[in-house]
């Protein structure tokens, strides 16, 4: 079983919709959780970074981590066509250890 | 802050030649850098962990003699694909670690003819 599970989609929503992206994980030792956005043929760009459980908000983006259920979420409010990309969740135990990525969810926001 | 660059961004080479890809952390020092490979429409696959001043740690199935990694300074790691073959054609991405977070370079697209 892969340590971080993510539905690859694709997910298509109309402009202005609220997008919910989710991942589950199995390793209880994960402490840091990230969401990356990757445009086609580009390197991943860090969107959100969360330590342990809780919510973090940055503009239209909100990241949630629920360690009790091993669930990671990213919400995008007022989605825009420019949000169309692949979104990767990732988790890591501690520093200097590799990130464990989900497969990525392809999101299309239709104008 | 936390900018990571890669050079070149795109390279085409003939089969049998070697290609070097550079990964630089521009505004921070990175003791640890990672090298990933990504095939179209797939997630990143970790190839190796590169630690400054020591040998890289390769993931299972990655040939260390084929993918040479050198992390000579706190801001530079290089990946050399030796005797490249068409099946090595891929998107190679590095990341550099800063305060428990990894920041990625823009990637290098390698095409081996």
Summarize the structure.
The complex is a heterodimer of chains A (111) and B (113). Chain A has 111 residues and is mostly beta strands.
Sheet/helix structural class of chain B: mainly beta
The largest β sheet of chain B comes out as:
7 strands, mixed
Order of helices and strands of chain A: EEEEEEEEEEE
Mean pLDDT of chain B: 92
- Note the gap between the termini of chain B: 37 Å
Q: How many whole angstroms does the radius of gyration of chain A measure?
A: 13 Å
Shape of chain A: globular
Give start-end ranges of low-pLDDT stretches of chain A: none
Write down how many β-strands of chain A occur, each being a DSSP E stretch of 2 or more residues: 11
| Interface with most residues | A-B, 24 and 27 residues
Residue-averaged pLDDT of chain A: 91
* Secondary-structure class of chain A: mainly beta
Largest sheet of chain A: 6 strands, mixed
Taken as a percent bin, the fraction of beta residues of chain B is: over 45%
Tell me roughly what share of residues is in helical segments of chain A.
under 10%
How far apart the termini of chain A lie comes to 37 Å
User: What is the oligomeric state here?
Assistant: heterodimer
Report the sheet-strand fraction of chain A. Answer: over 45%
General description of the model:
The complex is a heterodimer of chains A (111) and B (113). With 111 residues, chain A is mainly β. In chain A, 0% of the residues lie in helices and 55% in strands. Chain A is built from no helices and eleven strands. Chain A has strands at 4-6, 11-14, 19-25, 32-38, 45-51, 54-58, 61-66, 71-76, 85-92, 100-101, 105-110. In chain A, strands 2, 4, 5, 9, 10 and 11 form a six-stranded mixed β-sheet that branches. In chain A, strands 1-3-8-7-6 form a five-stranded antiparallel β-sheet, with no helix packed on it. In chain A, strand 4 (32-38) and strand 5 form a beta hairpin. Chain A is globular, with a radius of gyration of 13 Å. In chain A, 34% of the residues are buried. Chain B starts with a strand and ends with a strand. Helix content of chain B is 0%, strand content 55%. In chain B, a hairpin with a 2-residue loop joins strand 9 and strand 10. Chain B has strands at 4-7, 10-13, 19-25, 32-38, 45-51, 57-58, 67-73, 76-81, 90-98, 101-104, 108-112. With 113 residues, chain B is an all-beta fold. The A-B interface holds A 32, 34, 36, 41-46, 49, 51, 88, 90, 92, 94-96, 98-99, 101-104, 106 and B 2, 4, 6, 31-32, 34, 41-44, 46, 49, 51, 91, 93, 95, 97, 99-107, 109.
């Amino acid at each position: 079983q892969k340590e971080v599970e993510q539905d690859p989609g694709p997910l298509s929503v109309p402009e202005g919709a609220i997008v919910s992206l989710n991942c589950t994980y199995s390793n209880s030792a994960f402490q840091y959780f990230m969401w990356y956005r990757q445009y086609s043929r580009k390197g991943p760009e860090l969107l959100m970074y969360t330590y342990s459980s809780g919510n973090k908000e940055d503009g239209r983006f909100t990241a949630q981590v629920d360690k009790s259920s091993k669930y990671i979420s990213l919400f995008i409010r007022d989605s825009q066509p420019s949000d169309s990309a692949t979104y990767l969740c990732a988790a890591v135990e501690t520093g200097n250890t590799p990130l464990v990525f989900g497969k990525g969810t392809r999101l299309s926001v239709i104008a | 802050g936390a900018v990571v660059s890669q050079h070149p961004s795109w390279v085409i080479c003939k089969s049998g030649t070697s290609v070097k890809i550079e990964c630089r952390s521009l505004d921070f020092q990175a003791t640890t850098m990672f090298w990933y490979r990504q095939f179209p429409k797939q997630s990143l696959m970790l190839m190796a962990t590169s630690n400054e001043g020591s040998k890289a740690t390769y993931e299972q199935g990655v040939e260390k003699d084929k993918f040479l990694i050198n992390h000579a300074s706190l801001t530079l790691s290089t990946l050399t694909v030796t005797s490249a073959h068409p099946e090595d054609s891929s998107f190679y991405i590095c990341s550099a670690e800063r305060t428990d977070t990894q920041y990625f370079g823009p990637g290098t697209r390698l095409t081996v003819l």
